[in-house]
Amino acid sequence: MKIGVVTFPGSLDDGDARRAVRLAGGEPVALWHGDHTLAGVDAVILPGGFSYGDYLRCGAIARFAPVMEQVIEGAKGGLPVLGICNGFQILCESHLLPGALIRNDHRTFVCRDQVLRIENADTAWTRDYTAGQEITIPLKNGEGGFVASPDTVRELEDTGRVVARYVGVNPNGSINEIAGITNERGNVVGLMPHPEHAVEDLCGPGTDGLGFFTSVLQSVLV
Fold first, then answer.
1. Is the backbone of residue 212 left (phi > 0), alpha (psi -120 to 50) or beta?
2. Annotated catalytic residue, options 33, 58, 143, 194
């Protein structure tokens, strides 16, 4: 299965995401922000970093990159899309996911191994986990606080669209300790921590993040 990983000016974790796809058993395909096609991929990852230098707002400029026209259209048609960290911000700016990511409440950059609880194991990107499972993956962000209107938060909670929640500590002030959310269909997921940095025992806290990438391969086959 071909999984596209988009590189924007300022992307930092695109190479790591491609490696994670490869370790999961998929075929990573490098996509460029200026592309007008998705090259026939079966899913897309928007990686972490500082797209376009995070000028204006994080993800606000990347949202208008040529490739995003295809990503948005594909996502609305059911294409699995995962936005990690800056990719999560891009998904919110693109209105593929509700809410926004703002400056951490302590106003400093945070980098730590973070425990998460998987709340929704029915999305295209979480099917290899179980609801309630706790995993540890790295977190690194300066603007990772998830916010949304009370009505939106209530809807996310009531419809099971919170994908993952911070456990033990809320590292950035996210409402309800929300670390990741999904759209109604379950094909689009935004996640602030970095599963691509927890896919092999040699580096990072372990392999807890690999399930995000093996999940989408199973989802494509369904």
1. alpha
2. 194
Assess whether 85 carries a catalytic annotation: yes
H/E element holding 45?
Answer: strand 43-46
196 is catalytic: yes
What was the pLDDT predicted at 16?
Answer: 97
134 given a catalytic annotation: no
75 vs 1, 85, 206, CA distance in Å? 17, 18, 30
CB 176 within 8 A of CB 153: yes
Instruction: Please tell me whether residue 165 adopts helix, strand or coil conformation.
Output: strand
pLDDT value of residue 222 = 62
Among the listed residues 33, 85, 92, 119, the single catalytic one is 85
pLDDT of 34-62, one tens digit each? 999 999 999 999 999 999 998 888 999 99
Q: Give CATH superfamily name and number for 2-221.
A: Class I glutamine amidotransferase (GATase) domain (3.40.50.880)
Helix H or strand E segment including 111: strand 110-118
Taking only the tens place, the pLDDT of each residue in 182-219 is 999 999 999 999 999 999 998 889 999 999 999 999 88
Q: What is the pTM of this model?
A: 0.96
Catalytic residue among 93, 143, 177, 196: 196
